[in-house]
Amino acid sequence: MGTSTNSMKVLVLCALVAAAAAWPSFVDDLSFQSDVVASSTAHKQQDINHLLDKIYEDTKYPDLQEIAKNFNPLGDTSMYNDQGAAAEVLMKELNDHRLLEQHHWYSLFNARQREEALMLFAVLNQCKVWYCFRNNAAYFREQMNEGEFVYALYVGVIHSKLGDGIVLPPLYEITPHMFTNSEVIDKAYSAKMTQKAGTFNVSFTGTKKNKEQRVAYFGEDIGMNIHHVTWHMDFPFWWQDSYGYHLDRKGELFFWVHHQLTARFDFERLSNWLDPVDELHWDRIIREGFAPLTSYKYGGEFPVRPDNIHFEDVDGVAHVHDMEITENRIYEAIDHGYITATDGHTIDIRQPKGIELLGDIIESSMYSPNAQYYGSLHNTAHVMLGRQGDPHGKFNLPPGVMEHFETATRDPSFFRLHKYMDNIFKKHTDSFSPYTHDDLEFAGMAVDGVAIDGELITFFDEFQYSLINAVDSGESIEDVEINARVHRLNHKEFTYKITVSNSIGSDHLATFRIFLCPIEDNNGITLTLDKERWLCIELDKFFQKVPSGTHTIHRSSKDSSVTVPDMPSFHSLKEQADDAVNGGHDLDLSAYERSCGIPDRMLLPKSKPEGMEFNLFVAVTDGDKDTEGHNGDHDHGGTHAQCGVHGEAYPDNRPLGYPLERRIPDERVFDGVPNIKHVVVKIVHHPEHHD
Questions:
Q1: What distance in Å separates the CA atoms of residue 212 and residue 272, rounded to the nearest whole number?
Q2: Residue 201 CB neighbours (<10 A)
Q3: Cα separation, 256 vs 423, whole angstroms
């Protein structure tokens, strides 16, 4: 018995010695792998805030400093779904000194820079738990180019389940240089150096000598910039389903979101006595030049494009003739009604999903059935336009505004480019037979009346955002409050009142589709419904049960599935997350989780002081058929109309833009359908701020 007891003591002593020897490693594992203290939404939000604070400088947060110094991405590969394969690839690139240096411009359209950013995204996307995501982000923040890091982190949060509940700070406060005139950035530096807080007005580019100045408020709106860049993060052209899921109807959404941006731009031109934007042609002059008046944080000023220049071949990108060949091949596919896949078999595009395939080849995305043959019309065109200021690299200029999704809409040529592509899509949709009365009718459901509760009034307000992240820190120089002030289009909140009669005999799910359409062109000529329907903008789409009998549905403009509210400021996000963490309670920012969507204040076009009349179209369709095969309570919220639902199938089976996406040679077909109604509404612009 005694011998057995002594042996046991020896074994226990040996175990203690072994544990003591392993103790430092054990402590490290605890510090890096414990997910208990960092798994709540509040902790995650705080981590993201800290990772993005002063992105061009070393992190100032002790916990992130410790991780950046001691964490080994390959130390425990069990924390990855791929057993560390993606991390191994990135670490090899880092150790071989192949990664882009810090303090250098970054563009998603640069193939090598995009490859590096996606290496980091792949690492983050393979993480099983939050500590893996956070620690890798903290480590590579100090190792990689800042632009690559920010992009990878944003798409990582958007597409990883670990990012659920996190609100990404507005990019105009993380990388302010991309959104703010150089003159204002210079004033911000001066304010920091003199320790005098200041708020500086941001002017739109151009002068009154340039008629495009009248609509600069639209393309240069920071909320619209965020919508555009975020849509391309939600539906990136580089996405492969191996990353985790399929991006449902991506190609069709690519068409629809850019069609709507172009239509909205034309509405603003109509509101400012301008002709609709003309499409771009490869063999014609680019009449409108553009001077961005902005600079990279590192890399110099954004290039200027002069007026009245012809397209030139761009070294290392494409010849103009290549673009014409690509365009012709796409038009041939539309004329033939099919796409030829890589293996030579044909894919019918004269069917409901045809426009999705067309969008895939025009962009083109990784979903393209034959990228080698059909090229990359959209993406290459962005680079071609961005480089026209220095097409042969003679002056070694950095990328132009068209080579960044967050700055592209600032250039009027963006809308010319997308009008050009929009007309390609229109040729396809016009190849379909028009809808008949039977196609359009929702038997037993009638729209008896449509009205607006409240006035439709637009105005410009003022908005401030922080420039703290635009200026460098100094050991002996404290931060002072520095803000930019911008003028933004806004409107009074209003409510739709839609009276419907349900004679089906029971409650029935209905889909309400609301569009605003111009009545006249810029010359005052009344438009036919067939011309009008392609110019309409989507105001809302929602699903609602309609009880038997006659009822009035009330729907606030604030609830639109097309729009998003103003995002909380970076300061507010930090404050709320810190309060939640310190107070031991969780954080609910779900109302702001998605940035993809038209700013809710820009739902209506500006109009004119004397007012403009528009057609308000309301179509009520069979919600059971529209949502057949979809789960859920149909209260999708958010911005599903143009941005879908993350990781899920698009919640509406109808074509985007239905019932106005097909040609309408005979208006009487629509006039005789009881579940579709239009009324004339008037929008008035108040030049002075309206409370």
A1: 10
A2: 13
A3: 12
For residue 172, give both structure tokens. Answer: 């105009």
Containing structural domain, residue 657: 437-456+492-562+597-686
CA distances from 31 to 17, 25, 609, 648 (A): 22, 10, 62, 35
d(CA 4, CA 6): 6
CATH number at residue 618: 2.60.40.1520
Q: Output the pLDDT for position 24.
A: 35
DSSP-derived 3-state class of residue 313: coil
pLDDT 10s digits, 342-364:
999 999 999 999 999 999 999 99
Q: What is the DSSP letter of 495?
A: E
CATH of the domain at 50: 1.20.1370.10
SS3 530: helix
Of 89, 225, 47, 182, nearest to 602 by C-alpha is 225
**What's the distance, Cα to Cα, between the start and end of the chain in Å?**
91
- 315 and 361 share one domain: yes
Asked if the model's pLDDT at residue 228 lies above 50, the reply is: yes
Cα 41 to Cα 47: distance, rounded to the nearest angstrom: 10
Contact 641, 512 (CB under 8 A): no
Cα-trace Rg, the chain: 27
* Residues 605 and 270: beta-carbon distance below 8 Å: yes
Please name every residue paired with 578 in a beta bridge, in sequence order, or none if there are none: none
CB 62 within 8 A of CB 126: no
CA-to-CA separations, 678 to 54, 93, 197, 231, 641, in angstroms, rounded: 51, 59, 52, 30, 20
Q: How far is CA 232 from the centre of its chain?
A: 5
